[in-house]
Amino acid sequence: MEQQSAEDKTAQIACIRSCVREFFDRHPEHTQTSRPEASGMFVLLAELIRSLLSDQLISFAVACGGILTCMTIAFRSIRIGLISLFPNIFPVAIVMGALGWAGEPVNIGTAMITSVSMGLTVDSTIHYITAFERARKSHSVTEALQHAHAGAGRAVVLSHLALVAGFLVLTASRFIPLVYFGALLSVSLIGGIFGDLVLLPLLLRLVTPETVSTSETTTSQHDVAADNGE
Questions:
Q1: What sign for the dihedral angle of Cα 51, 100, 104, 159?
Q2: Cβ–Cβ < 8 Å for 21, 28
Q3: Using CA atoms, how far apart are residues 149 and 193, in angstroms rounded to an integer?
Q4: Among residues 14, 40, 116, 206, which is most buried (max CB within 10 A)?
Q5: DSSP state of 5
Q6: Cα(100)–Cα(187) distance, rounded to whole angstroms?
């Protein structure tokens, strides 16, 4: 039965291998040059799901490390690097946690949600933080957040809605894991909107100092002068 978990499939395969081993130990005359082995799509799918789950845990950790490193280098701030992780991990944690509470088994489709969702959400995080940092050079924290919301915030909503519309098409498939993937990834992307437009501004407001340093003020004045052609 394809609805069995990978653990149940693996247990059945181990039982088959044990029976085969015992049979050929009792009847050595049937032994060929190579010992018989369990094979087929059942074994392939069981090993595929088990491998996919372990690979996704590794890819999730690598994605977190990659986001932290890239954002820290791009904005030259470990503070920004750490903050940028939260809106990307938040929707994944909500979706996967809800699946766990509901007792839903993890299949091929649901296992791929974590790294894919983070890869799609981090783009909007970059745009929002960039807009905030630019506005912060000449405005207060509250005003900078308002500028980021008015500019990058609109783009975040529209881009996420476009992605949701695209992935919802997968729910029309007859391949059940693909249906799970499209539906749950769409939910995760909607959570990404909340993470980038609610959680991220709150974190920026909490950890960003209100005063603007002298170097930042000088830089903003040069930027304004450049924009005016002076």
A1: negative
A2: no
A3: 12
A4: 116
A5: -
A6: 15
- Distance in angstroms (rounded) separating the CA atoms of residues 203 and 87: 10
Structure tokens at 147: 């500028």
Phi, psi at 210, each rounded to 5°: -75, -35
Top-confidence residue, 103 or 131:
131
In tens, the pLDDT along 168-225 reads 998 988 887 788 888 888 999 999 999 999 999 999 988 887 765 444 444 444 444 4
The tokens of 198 are what? 């609610």
**Cβ of 121: how many Cβ atoms within 10 Å?**
26
Q: At what angle do helices 41-75 and 78-102 cross, to 10 degrees?
A: 150
pTM of the model: 0.71
Q: What do you get for the CA distance between the two ends of the chain, in Å? A: 74
Q: How many residues does the chain have?
A: 230
Q: Give the C-alpha separation, 72 to 87, whole Å.
A: 15
Residue 33 confidence (pLDDT) above 70? no
Percentage of the chain exceeding pLDDT 90: 23
Collapse the DSSP code of 34 into the 3-class scheme (helix H, G, I; strand E, B; otherwise coil) and give the result.
coil
Least Cα distance to 60 among 115, 23, 112 occurs for 115
- Structure tokens, 217: 């003020």
- For 42, the token pair is 């059942």
Rg over alpha carbons for the chain, rounded to the nearest Å, is: 25
